[in-house]
Amino acid sequence: MQKWIRERPGLRSKALVLYGGLLRNHIAPALGTKPLRELSAPMLRGWRQSLLDGGLGPVTAAKAYRLLRSILSTAVEDRLIKTNPCYIKGAAVERSPERPVLTVAEVYKLAHAMHPRFRSLILVAALGSLRWGELAALQRRHVDLVNGVLRIRQAAVELPTGELQISPPKTAAGRRTVYLPEIVMQDLRLHFDIYVKRAPEAFVSREPRAHSCAGQRSSGTGGRDSRELV
């Protein structure tokens, strides 16, 4: 099964980390030693149920099931097995519960409770709808402090080594322009004045031990944890 992941060089780092974790933690322990021809629908139904009974969230269980189904689909294509035994109806569908959303007042209360160097980042993430990886990869050159514009052109993914890999957004929709209200920009300008270096490549949130998808390292952190902000 690990061979299936290795033979897909086009997978992004985030997918590699996700698939590796699903395989290592949820698939291989129960099924890794089973010959492909012995895998049956009842066996896989029991495996999936054991994940759920063991406390695994339904979203992660669906991801694990979907990965296994893809692996076995390749086995069918390679004529290692005749049919794919993964056909439990709805097992691969992620049904995430609705997530609570903070009010604007709650966002500002949270930002006020943080260390000053994190205040504007909380506001930008919440009111600009930025994901963690987008905020972590944001650089000075992506921010128009005069007009209140952020250009999302890359995102960070944490690798198992603890390093952050910087790469373009996964989809075209991820490459976008975000407009922030002036009240947020006031905080962000102060943040730039105090915490962000002058170089265009300086990171808004931290100086990471990160490397680009081309394998080039950014400036070092002097031994600090790559996840530390600023």
Structural class: mainly alpha
The average pLDDT value, as a whole number, equals: 85
The number of E-state strands comes to 6
Largest sheet: 3 strands, antiparallel
Kindly report the spatial arrangement of strands forming the biggest sheet.
1-2-5
Low-confidence segments, given as residue ranges, are 208-230
Shape: elongated
Instruction: Kindly report the name of the CATH homologous superfamily of the largest domain.
Output: Intergrase catalytic core
* CATH architecture label name of the largest domain: Orthogonal Bundle
| Top-tier CATH class of the largest domain | Mainly Alpha
Q: Report the span from N to C terminus.
A: 40 Å
**How many alpha or pi helices?**
8
- Radius of gyration (CA) equals 22 Å
Element order: H for helix, E for strand: HHHHHHHEEEEEHE
Q: How helix-rich are the residues, as a percent range?
A: 40-55%
Tally of distinct domains: 2
**Strand content bin:** 5-15%
What is CATH's topology name of the largest domain? Answer: hpI Integrase, Chain A
